[in-house]
Amino acid sequence: MQLKLFLLFLLIIPGLSGIAYGHTVDVVGEYRVEIGWMNEPVVSGETNAIEFYVSPLIACPEIPEALKCAESQKFQNGIPDLRKTVKMELIFKDENIMLPLSPDHNIPGKYYAFVNPTVSGFYQANILGTIVDTSISLSMHPPKVSERAYIEFPEPSDITITQMIDGHTALIEDVGDMKESINNLEKNQSNNMEYVGIGAGIIGIIIAIIAIAKSKN
């Protein structure tokens, strides 16, 4: 029972927070690549940048899986001079923009793709081009962009109806995602009906939070 609760909280806590911290790591050939937001927590309506790191992948004899090997390492000995050979395509739903990379002049192998994410939600970053002699066409996902209105204090007097609707829509979408995940758990564990009660209780709490937020606005 304790294990089931632990797994359920792992599923729900990220959706409740709306903010995910940290960077995402992947592997391309003999290189370790990493992305993340420059300023965290990242919120809509603020100029920010996606940081992009490229460094050689150091061999891990004790870790045969390349991705886990890369995740066990820290960025070091970065690969310079990729500004002209690598670009980043940022995608949000049906919209996309191609962003150039600006090198960090103090840290070789570290680059910035500056952008102002105007809408909260999850973005996809496609890394395209060539790292030295290695082609790269990789999709990565930086942490979620949060709704700016939720961290402003005091609440701005000129907040618009559109901003409020966007914020509540984001919460409702998160609740929908959690309901779907709970349904999947129920299907996989049809004999463990306690998931139903736990999931319903948590969803009720979320709906109550939304109602309170609406009443404040």
Describe the structure.
The protein is of the alpha+beta class. It has two domains: 77 residues; 124 residues, Immunoglobulin-like (Sandwich), CATH 2.60.40. Helices cover 34% and strands 26% of the residues. It is built from four helices and nine strands, in the order H-E-E-E-H-E-E-E-E-E-E-H-H. The strands form two sheets. It has a five-stranded antiparallel β-sheet with strand order 1-2-3-7-6. Strands 5-4-8-9 form a four-stranded antiparallel β-sheet, with no helix packed on it. Strand 6 and strand 7 form a beta hairpin. Helix 3 runs antiparallel to helix 4. It is globular. The two termini are 39 Å apart. The relative contact order is 0.16. The N terminus is likely disordered.
* SSE class: alpha+beta
Overall pLDDT, averaged?
78
- Proportion of residues in helical segments: 25-40%
Number of helices: 4
Dominant shape: globular
CATH class of the largest domain: Mainly Beta
Sheet with most strands: strand arrangement: 1-2-3-7-6
Q: How many β-strand runs?
A: 9
For the termini, the CA-CA separation is: 39 Å
Compute the number of structural domains: 2
Q: CATH topology of the largest domain, which one? A: Immunoglobulin-like
Content of β-strand: 25-35%
Largest sheet: 5 strands, antiparallel
Radius of gyration: 20 Å
Shape-level CATH architecture of the largest domain: Sandwich
Can you write the helix and strand succession as a string?
HEEEHEEEEEEHH
Low-confidence stretches: 1-20
